[in-house]
């Protein structure tokens, strides 16, 4: 039972504010989320593109999900595995399903 709760997954859908952005042939993005006090937290995540959406799969009890439940505004940039950005930053909002 503990493992079921600990590994409960959520899906994060990224929606763009002004323009639709795609990252062909990329695997990782830096997801910048915001704490209640306004400070930003940058997290490297694996993502996938599906039907013109950016999808991120993560566990429900992670810090990024907690921050996104309080503030769904994000900034995103393409990165490598270690989080070094390879593109400009894009703004958007997320929906957790």
Describe the 3D structure.
This protein has 97 residues and is mainly β. The protein is built from 2 helices and 7 strands, in the order H-E-E-E-E-E-H-E-E. A hairpin with a 5-residue loop joins strand 2 and strand 3. The longest helix has 8 residues, at 63-70. The model has no long low-confidence stretch (mean pLDDT 85).
The overall average pLDDT, rounded, is 85
- Computed over alpha carbons, the radius of gyration is 13 Å
Largest sheet: 7 strands, antiparallel
Approximate helicity band: 10-25%
Taking the alpha carbons of the first and last residues, their distance comes to: 22 Å
Widest beta sheet: strand line-up: 3-2-6-7-1-5-4
* Shape estimate: globular
Query: If helices are DSSP runs of H or I spanning 4 or more residues, what is the number of helices?
Result: 2
Query: Structural class of the secondary structure composition?
Result: mainly beta
Low-pLDDT stretches are none
Question: What is the tally of beta strands?
Answer: 7
**Order of secondary-structure elements:** HEEEEEHEE
Assess the beta-strand content as a share of residues: over 45%
